[in-house]
Amino acid sequence: MSFLTTLKNNTKVAHIRVEKVMVKEIKSISCLEHYARLLERLFLFYNPLECKVHQSLNHSILPDIDKRKHTNWILEDLDVLGYTINTSNYYKTQHITSISYAVGVLYVMEGSTMGGQIISKMVKKQLETDINTHYFDSYRDKTMEMWLSFKNSITQYETQLDHEEVFNGANETFSALKKWLELTSILESISE
Fold it and tell me: What does the alpha-carbon distance between residue 153 and residue 148 come to, in Å, rounded to a whole number?
């Protein structure tokens, strides 16, 4: 069994759990403000994590690492909506303990671009409008190409990776995102 297949299998349960929470979040969007608040919550989770991953990985592992930044798209979407992020509530991210762990984290972030295309359609359907979904459509028509490029880079580097650390990085990121979405959803409903 290939490393990437093992990674997918080892993270499947955590992936499904966060996916269920995300679908519930999307289905609860009833106005542009709800969409903006979801984007804000995703930014507050992913931005510090994305920064740490990019500090940990370099071009020898991923030649196109500079193209793999997604949180700026959230800012663009929020700017179009006229929404300003409250940056006092950043998620306190897990520690990136190794290159292998960072690869696991990036596996989650890059994999989300595949699901992002589906989420984009769900958001537009939910809001009944053709709203900007640049974040969820990060790579647009190059999504599959970028995903395959990511997988190829990881496959070429896999003998130098601690596989358990990659699994931990991915599983802990999925779990942390699920907890973050659940917690911030509860806090938002209390403040309304």
Answer: 9
Question: Integer distance in angstroms from the first to the last C-alpha of the chain?
Answer: 49
Q: Is there a domain that residue 191 lies in? A: no
CA dist list (Å): 180 to 7, 22, 64, 126, 185: 23, 11, 29, 22, 8
CB atoms within 10 A of CB 31: 10
Specify if 178 maps to a domain.
Answer: yes
Say how far apart CA 131 and CA 22 lie, in whole Å. 18
Query: What integer pLDDT is reported at residue 91 of this predicted model?
Result: 75
Helices (H), 57-98: 71-81
- pTM for this entry: 0.94
- Separation CA 161–CA 13 (nearest Å): 22
Give the contacts of 10 (CB within 8 A, at least 6 positions apart).
167, 170, 171
Q: Mind listing the pLDDT tens digit for each residue in 38-62?
A: 999 999 999 999 999 999 999 999 9
Domain count for the chain: 1
For residue 176, is it within any domain? yes
Residue 79 pLDDT grade (very low, low, confident, very high; cuts 50, 70, 90): very high
The answer for residues whose C-beta is within 8 angstroms of residue 126's C-beta and 6 or more apart is 26, 27, 29, 30
Domain of 71, CATH number, reads 1.20.910.10
Domain that holds residue 136: 3-186
Is 192 a domain residue?
Answer: no
In one letter, which amino acid is 135? Y
